[in-house]
Amino acid sequence: MKPKYEWYPMVVTATFYPVQLISGAFICDGENDVRISDVFPVANTLWGDDGGVMIIGDKKPVPNGIYIKWLSALEGQLYEGTFDLPHEQMSELFKSGFVEDLYTGKPKPGYPYDYIKVGLAPGGVVAVWLSGFNSQILLGQFTADKVPAEDSLFEAWSNTQAEQSILLKDDSNEQVLNMPIPYGLWDEYNRRFSWRYNIRLEDEKSSFNTINSTYSNGEQYFIYTPEMMSEYNSRAYPRDITIMWDKDSDTYVANIRLNKPMILDAFQQMSQKTGDNVHIDFCVDISRYNNLLKFSLESGEHKIELPEEATKIMIFIPVRDNKVVYCSHNWDDETNGVGLDYFNEYYVIKK
Description:
By secondary structure, the protein is mainly β. 12% of the residues lie in helices and 41% in strands. The chain has helices at residues 87-96, 151-157, 161-167, 185-188, 260-274, and strands at residues 4-6, 8-13, 20-27, 34-35, 52-53, 59-61, 65-72, 77-84, 115-121, 125-132, 135-143, 145-147, 192-201, 206-215, 220-223, 233-236, 238-247, 250-258, 279-286, 293-299, 302-305, 311-317, 323-327. The longest helix is centred in the C-terminal third of the chain and has 15 residues, at 260-274. The radius of gyration is 21 Å and the shape is globular.
């Protein structure tokens, strides 16, 4: 019998571009297909973040492909497509799970990849990720076909929670109402560079702890030893970073939100200066007093310093009742702080 694992389908979409799923399923060769729920309209998640999920069954086979049909209502288009998935890669990932435990660094039992996410974006973009705690891997990105849609589909969508959530969103909508739909943006998110993190602590008594980073294409990786930063990897550019470091009995945590257009521009500039095959260091300099971060891209003699407006930062100490050491902006929810805003995304709402 083919091995089965406990995983669940999840649908996510692009900010300001809600969808209504018409039908969808993960295709399992010789097994019952796993239906993707069409119950929940999805809107306003960052690319690759969590979305609508329906708990269906328990253990399931590793799928070979996916069928998906959905309404991109604000775009005014119905899409449909069937795509092959990398079955062998997925089987190996489900089998191995996370190699190391989050806290001990030792092998972790079980199969912790517990979601297969499907991302839907304008232009018929379909992205598929294998997702678990502190790890998310892009399995592939595809383009669905345009198909004719009955007007009744759009009329039905107009009464959904998805439409209400998009129309009632905050004033940031006004900044993008007259912009064109950014077709090709999600392909741009997949642009890869050969790079690594380089964390530099000015305080000699401080020591590196961990990095948890989400990338522009929705992938997520966890780094917990300095040795894991030594190798260059071909990855998309970073979107969000959490850095932890230790000083005496305190652990400092820095949550960093990056301005994606500015970060992409910096990576592209460095590639132009040094060549597409260059190795790039994404450098983070942590001040002697553990209260200030500076960022730069470096490769050999070339260096690009990132301006302050390229980042939003909060540094705090959890064991001291989350004492805030530094904050570059207003962080509370009511002002749409770094945890909630979309920080210069190229997203659009059509009137």
